[in-house]
Amino acid sequence: MKIVIATAVYYPQINGVAVFSHNLAVGLVKRGYEVIVICPSQTGKSYEENVDGVRTVYLKSVDAKVYPDQIHAIPEKKRFLGVKLPHLWYENGFRISVFPSQEIKAVLDGFQPDVVHVQVSDPIGLSVVSYARKHGIPVVTTEHNQPEVLTDPLRVPKLMKKPANYLLSTYFRNRQSKSDFVTMPTEQAIRGLLREKELGVPVVAVSNGVDLSHFKPGKANRMIYKKYGILPDRKTVLYVGRVDPEKKVGIVVEAFLKANVDSSQLVVVGDGVDRARLDNKFGKTDNIHFLGRVAGDDLYELYRVGDVFATASEIETQGIVLIEAAASGLPLIAVDKGAVSEVCIDEENGYLCEPGSVPEIAAAIKKILVDDKLRARFSKKSLEIAKKHDFETTLDKFTNIYKKVTSR
């Protein structure tokens, strides 16, 4: 079977869609499928690369400037008369392929795919669907977004946010109705955005999944503490992910400080628009560490540094980092919004808190860090929950979906 994966974000970018798309492509190739990934170039020019065994086609692109590319470090804000100016543009901005139809036609004419799998409603995704419809190729789409994922980072004014979210929801549903099969990472995400009767096509939940072989419970290698300047004998609250305003990492920092647990530390792994501000405000003590972007084996080890994983993000359609943390045996703290409650189950493997509530998150941090028995019970349950999200199971489900739509 020949499969096309179309996405607006891909390796070497790091976010949920990019990680999932990369894992899916690599997993399919390992199972013997022929796969092409189509995504925007990170240089502006079109080129092809073999990325971890996957033929990857990077299309011509332009720099949008309004959002960082998630690859390069975020620069410090510039000052004017001693006042820090907001980031209005980025030298290394998010890249978009604006008119990709002809490039896509040339690639797909030569490849002759059996099925296309679209991840994002960008010009690449729309052009791939248009090509597939003209040539009778079945279309599978995975909806990773909620409207807030777009309107929060763009800081849409409060008065306009509700109608903007409504219009985006309508657009997402309209796009999915053009597919032959639709997936989202959780049942909760489906209930929040997509309704099968409204779409008129099959809609199922398929977990983003993680490769469980990378994530194991237990203590991290002592060298990892030394490498990143982390204190080895302290109880550790861990956050992994983008450090952007919509992820609300500042709430986790404030909750950690309010919890005020003796001999504890907070480790934040990731980069983003908000990192410099938070680092300048909170990162001058020996108990708060902003490590920046980390990948590969070091990241797997850093999960083992944690005693509890905490996030205040309200925009998750599942949260790959929550699955990774659970697979590392960590209790979870999250907020009861988005679609995290199928991974973080309140009072079973952690706590779901009121969105934006620093006191609730602080209380949850304190309960888990000071109670060894509670922490051990939550850890055991996290490992059980993580087993349901093994990426091999995710691959099984998607290959069955591909076979189903092509057999029609």
Poorly predicted tracts of residues = none
Rg result: 21 Å
Beta-strand residue percentage: 15-25%
Spatial ordering of strands, largest sheet: 3-4-2-1-9-10-11-12
Mean pLDDT: 89
The largest pleated sheet is described as: 8 strands, mixed
- Distance between the amino and carboxyl termini: 14 Å
Q: Number of helical runs?
A: 15
Number of strands: 18
Shape: globular
The amount of helix comes to: 25-40%
SS-based class = alpha/beta
Topology of this structure?
Elements: E1 2-6, H1 16-30, E2 34-40, E3 47-51, E4 54-59, E5 62-68, E6 79-80, E7 83-84, E8 93-96, H2 101-111, E9 115-118, H3 123-134, E10 139-142, H4 147-151, H5 158-176, E11 181-184, H6 187-193, H7 196-199, E12 203-205, H8 222-228, E13 235-240, H9 249-259, E14 264-269, H10 275-282, E15 288-292, H11 297-303, E16 308-310, H12 320-327, E17 332-335, E18 350-353, H13 358-370, H14 372-387, H15 391-407
Parallel strand pairs: 1-2, 1-9, 2-4, 9-10, 10-11, 11-12, 13-14, 13-16, 14-15, 16-17, 17-18
Antiparallel strand pairs: 3-4, 5-8, 6-7
